[in-house]
Amino acid sequence: MAYSKELLDHYEKPRNVGSFDKNEVGIGTGLVGAPACGDVMKLQLKINKQGIIEDAKFKTFGCGSAIASSSLVTEWVKGKTIDEARQIKNMDIAKHLSLPPVKIHCSVLAEDAIKSAIADYKTKLAKINEDGTENSDPAKAAG
Amino acid sequence: MKLPIYLDYQSTTPMDPKVLDAMMPYFVEKHGNPHSRSHSFGWDAEEGVEIARKQIADVIRANPKEIIFTSGATESNNLAIKGVAHFYKSEGKNHIITVSTEHKCVLDTCRHLNQDGFEITYLPVDEKGIINLEELERAIKKNTVLVSVMMVNNEIGVIQPMKEIGDICKKHNIFFHTDAAQGYGKIPIDVNEMNIDLMSISSHKIYGPKGVGALFIRRKPNRVRIEPLINGGGQERGLRSGTLPTPLIVGFGKAAEICKDVMEIEYARIKKLSDLFYKEIVESIPDVYLNGHKEKRWPGNLNLSFAYIEGESLILAIKDLAVSSGSACTSASLEPSYVLRALGVDVELAHTSIRFGFGRFTTEEEVDYAIKVIKKSIDKLRAMSPLWEMVQDGIDLKSIKWADH
User: Is B397 buried (19+), middle (13-18) or exposed (0-12) by CB count in 10 A?
Assistant: First the structure.
């Protein structure tokens, strides 16, 4: 399959590969896809108390398009607020990487990964609040 | 060493330069129609065709009269299966037995016959890709006319028990057809010893030109009758009309002759390369699995599953190696290989499979290079794989509830 230069660049030099400790406060982990479908994405966001995504890491099992899509979103989400990150649409990813039509689902998965990571962060935060901590400051809650 | 390295010999093969040399005179100088009887142009072309017919027959110990030329193995498979089915239909014989791991052109031909009212039995294979002979015998019925089982599987390289299948067919007086596109010229074949009645052969899988193939149709002791697919001027004894492509046939014949001459040496050489590759990859990389029987195989085909790495991403990573994948992501359908699924390979693992093909022009230097590139890429991709990470953390992937998408 003929892939675009942008896609191959992300595939060959993937940005932000790795993992954060998922138990750490401020880390939201999204795990989407299924091995049986041929792609699984793990996206982790490091979110500060202002709700800004400071850092992001990914690991992906999948085709070149899936790897490139996840690599791209780790770059895009950095510096964005949670709400801004949630605005990232799969078609923007697909357009940027010029994904062929049969690979559009890879960009959908990347969008899902962002939403899933944010949801995980929020669930964790709510749980910490429920546990009787005084405020929603994740840094303090950690102690 | 030139890059990229061709490791996709099941898909097609480069032409042997000696084949091209043999073909050259038949394009311009000896351009005649082999069916022209009235001048030397025709006679020269006919001579070239008949020499080729003998060269092709000799490889499988057949009579040249039992070989007819087609456009390739796909046409030969269509002609053999539809041809027999339609010819014997009036005798009430309308049942065909084949196997779930056959090439698409056999399965699709059977599907069409099924739509036309024929009954088809698809035999399953075991986890090594081999059919069960007792199951075959049990599937035979009064109205069975044909058993079609491929010799060497194109995706995984396993060899079906030809002689045993031939014996069963003979015992029950049923025709035995085999798609031998991947086996012809590579492993010893004797159509009489194996009781084969019809055999499909392809030129471009044996270092010959593309666009030509042959069908072996037994004449003695029991002649197989078939109904032609293509009607016209009655060439090839009325079984396949149309002017024969003389240069292609001459090349095909030369390719067959070379295969026969070098078969023993080439088998040993390719086996050595394949063993070296297998040993280096499987012993140095964890969680790599060979698909298909380990011994009952053509060694020039190694289909490996690299767990936790998706096939297409590996193909991209080893871009200096030209290989094929059983992974869904390289195909338009997004479904992983039906052959691997028939073996009971998990969908997860089917997504991670790559076929490595070795052939006449593969060198040890190329294999060494391939091993190095693969090892490096596996390291890189596994470091990037969330599944690999989870397994290293002791998580059972089957215990996770994955959301299907």
Answer: middle
Question: pTM value?
Answer: 0.91
Active site residue B329: yes
Rg (CA), chain B: 23
B397 assigned to some structural domain? no
- Rounded to the nearest angstrom, the minimum Cα separation between A35 and chain B is 5
What is the ipTM metric for this complex?
0.86
Most B CBs within 10 Å, among A61, A105, A109, to test the B interface = A61
- For residues B212 and B249, give the distance between their C-alpha atoms in angstroms, rounded to a whole number: 7
Using CA atoms, how far residue B125 sits from B289, B340, B344, in Å, is: 18, 10, 9
Range of the domain at A122: 5-130
Residues of A in contact with B383 (CB under 8 A): 17
Q: Please indicate, yes or no, whether residues B70 and B31 belong to a single structural domain of this protein.
A: yes
Q: Which residue in the block uniquely carries the two structure tokens 């090839």? A: B236
Measured between beta carbons, the chain A residues lying within 8 angstroms of B378 are none
Q: What is the pLDDT along chain B (405 residues), one digit of tens a residue?
A: 999 999 999 999 999 999 999 999 999 999 999 999 999 999 999 999 999 999 999 999 999 999 999 999 999 999 999 999 999 999 999 999 999 999 999 999 999 999 999 999 999 999 999 999 999 999 999 999 999 999 999 999 999 999 999 999 999 999 999 999 999 999 999 999 999 999 999 999 999 999 999 999 999 999 999 999 999 999 999 999 999 999 999 999 999 999 999 999 999 999 999 999 999 999 889 999 999 999 999 999 999 999 999 988 999 999 999 998 866 555 556 678 899 999 999 988 888 899 999 999 999 999 999 999 999 999 999 999 999 999 999 999 988 888 765
- Whether A136 is in a domain gets the answer no
Q: Which of B313, B386, B404 sits opposite A64 (nearest CB)?
A: B313
Residue A59 to residue B384, Cβ atoms within 8 A: yes
